[in-house]
Design goal:
Layout: E1 10-13, E2 20-22, H1 26-36, H2 43-63, H3 70-84, H4 91-101, E3 108-110, H5 114-123, E4 127-132, H6 137-142, E5 155-157, H7 158-161, H8 168-177, E6 185-189, H9 192-201, E7 206-209, E8 221-222
Parallel strand pairs: 1-4, 1-6, 4-5, 6-7, 7-8
Antiparallel strand pairs: 2-3
Helix pairs in contact: 1-2, 2-3, 3-4
């Protein structure tokens, strides 16, 4: 069973999909936003459009060496929303609503086992942190969840770092934030490419959170956070 390596001094967690989850789900929120602006889309149709729009932006980021910024993140989300909700009466209003919606804690819930796991790891003397492909909005989200306080001293947001996951520079920045060698930090996340492959390629041990067993070939994986303990 995967566990925190004996030589680890710090554990960094991904945010969305690992510690934080949209509530209600993002597809439902997008579909409701589209409906209020004259476009009927099922959550399934939203997913199809969203995945296509998101992949285009991923390809653009890869071609650009994973460089990002606050401006880049806002622009990329404007394009994702506009493409996903193509056909609405007011695309800019939809973007503004969704961008603001996901900026506050009321749009999110914390993983039910997060508090237990963070407390236990901190109790072992491990430094904890958060490493996210998000933007400045993450701070206001985190402020609403006191149970995530153990990671707040070391929060790395890609738009501030200047490089997003899976760029190696992001994981090297995480190691510096913990004053550790990259090999002494464990990264835990739910995204195979951005989190697991990105971290391991940078020389950082990683564990994939894979609740549905979608990647049986990954040697270090868990189905829930408590398996780290």
């Amino acid at each position: 069973m995967p566990h925190v390596p004996a030589g680890a001094r710090a554990v960094f967690f991904d945010a969305v999909g690992t510690l934080l989850f949209p509530e209600p789900g993002a597809l439902v929120v997008y579909a409701e936003t589209a409906r209020r602006h004259g476009l009927a889309l099922s959550p399934g149709a939203v997913r199809e459009r969203f995945v296509a729009a998101y992949r285009l932006e991923e390809d653009a980021d890869a071609a650009g060496g994973w460089v990002t910024s606050e401006t880049r993140e806002r622009d990329r989300w404007r394009r994702i929303v506009t493409d996903t909700l193509a056909g609405v009466s007011n695309p800019e209003a939809c973007f503004g609503h969704l961008f603001d919606h996901f900026a506050g804690p009321r749009a999110w819930r914390v993983a039910p086992d997060a508090a237990e796991v963070l407390a236990a790891l901190s109790g072992r003397g491990l430094l904890l942190g958060l490493g996210s492909n998000y933007d400045d909005r993450l701070w206001s989200v985190l402020a609403g969840f006191p149970e995530l306080a153990p990671v707040r001293d070391r929060v790395l947001i890609s738009s501030a770092v200047g490089v997003r996951k899976p760029g190696a520079a992001f994981f090297h920045a995480a190691a510096r934030a913990a004053n550790c060698d990259v090999s002494e930090v464990l990264f835990v996340g739910d995204d195979l490419g951005n989190d697991y492959v990105g971290a391991t390629a940078a020389g950082m041990p990683a564990v994939l959170l894979d609740p549905h067993g979608s990647y049986p070939e990954v040697p270090q994986q868990i189905t829930r956070l408590t398996e780290l303990l």
